[in-house]
Design brief:
The protein is mostly beta strands. The protein is built from 1 helix and 6 strands. The chain has a 4-stranded antiparallel β-sheet with strand order 1-6-3-4, with no helix packed on it.
């Protein structure tokens, strides 16, 4: 039986001890978490969110995830262009207190 070897297999780090894996994981930085509370004095007739980031994000309004996208925006060369996504958030906003949260990373 022949064994197939990937040419890039040598680029994959090999860990011999569980402690080395844990140390590498501990060096990773967590995603940033941003939060903004705001109040509206009247009912919303129409609202949009335009969101752009150099990296991925998840957007939540009043505890509910906005949209059904995962790992947005798509990958691009950030020195040439930055992609954004538009969401209709009219139904997610309410008169009174509102809460907007973003996880970015």
């Amino acid at each position: 039986m022949r064994r197939w070897i990937n040419k890039t297999a040598s680029a994959i780090p090999k860990f011999e001890k569980k402690e080395e894996i844990i140390e590498r994981l501990n060096q990773l930085k967590p995603a940033a978490y941003l939060r903004k509370r705001f109040s509206l004095t009247s009912e919303v007739r129409f609202a949009r969110v335009y969101i752009c980031g150099l990296g991925y994000y998840e957007l939540y309004l009043n505890g509910e995830k906005v949209g059904d996208h995962a790992l947005d925006p798509g990958q691009t060369d950030y020195e040439k262009r930055a992609l954004y996504v538009t969401y209709d958030v009219t139904a997610a906003l309410r008169k009174g207190s509102n809460d907007c949260r973003r996880h970015i990373g």
